[in-house]
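Progress note, sequence design subtask.
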């Protein structure tokens, strides 16, 4: 029998609903106006708002998702979550900084100005935040799928696979459909080179290894697997919804099949017992 999931606070549930709602509205807006700019009123204000929306919705989703994720993290982990957050931020920034400068480990690419202010000359400040947003649920779901007795290496490798599955939709949506970043070395999957997937997996292994190493004292094991799966789904909804609206069905199918395979493997293994809220300081 699977253990009961950690209790979910009403605020956590409300935050997740708000994230889903915002993401769904953004996808609808992209489908209605982003793909059909001719539907916009001809006045200058509408055109300016349309141009700003590409920056606003992508940046706002990351910031809203961070606020939503911090609700359960702060409730169960308190200030101790700052250590894992800082570690993931710094390591993912270094990976992106090297990647945008030398083409390793993702292949050659550069960010446009749509993701806002940068840390250093090349990497938007929000990009390492997005790595953290998906590293945490990927780790939680991998640990729940493999069980408390699983090895650290198996949890890290499984969690990195969840990260790569997200990129199967993210990259086509954000580089092929919209110009959030541009590839210098193009490849067959919506312009993305295959090296990028290897780079994602390698980076994911490093980040998940850090989270797994810090999990005991940071109390990440007290997080609700069901809530984290919902949060992961809300983050995946944006790129998958954009791809579906644009008719990029190959990426939609590939992403859904990959997620279904990961979910099916999770269902056949015993879950990890969460720590009751009563023992979390």
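Output:
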């Amino acid at each position: 029998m699977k253990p009961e999931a950690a209790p979910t606070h009403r605020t956590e549930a409300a935050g997740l609903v708000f994230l889903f709602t915002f993401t769904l509205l953004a996808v609808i807006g992209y489908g209605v106006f982003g793909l059909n700019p001719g539907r916009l009123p001809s006045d200058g204000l509408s055109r300016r708002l349309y141009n700003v929306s590409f920056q606003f919705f992508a940046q706002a989703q990351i910031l809203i998702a961070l606020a939503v994720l911090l609700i359960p993290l702060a409730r169960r982990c308190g200030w101790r979550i700052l250590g894992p957050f800082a570690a993931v931020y710094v390591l993912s920034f270094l990976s992106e900084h090297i990647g945008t400068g030398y083409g390793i480990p993702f292949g050659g690419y550069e960010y446009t100005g749509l993701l806002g202010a940068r840390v250093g000359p090349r990497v938007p400040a929000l990009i390492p935040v997005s790595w953290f947003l998906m590293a945490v649920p990927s780790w939680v779901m991998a640990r729940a799928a493999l069980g408390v007795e699983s090895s650290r290496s198996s949890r890290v490798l499984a969690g990195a696979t969840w990260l790569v599955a997200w990129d199967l939709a993210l990259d086509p949506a954000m580089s092929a459909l919209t110009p959030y970043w541009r590839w210098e070395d193009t490849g067959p999957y919506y312009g993305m080179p295959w090296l990028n997937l290897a780079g994602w997996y390698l980076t994911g292994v490093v980040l998940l290894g850090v989270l797994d190493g810090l999990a005991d004292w940071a109390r990440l094991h007290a997080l609700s697997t069901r809530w984290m799966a919902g949060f992961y789904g809300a983050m995946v909804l944006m790129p998958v919804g954009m791809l579906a609206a644009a008719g990029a069905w190959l990426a939609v199918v590939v992403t859904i099949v990959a997620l279904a395979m990961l979910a099916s493997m999770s269902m056949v293994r015993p879950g990890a017992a969460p720590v009751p809220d009563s023992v979390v300081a």
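Residues 44-77 form the longest helix (34 residues). Work on this subtask will continue into the next period as scheduled.
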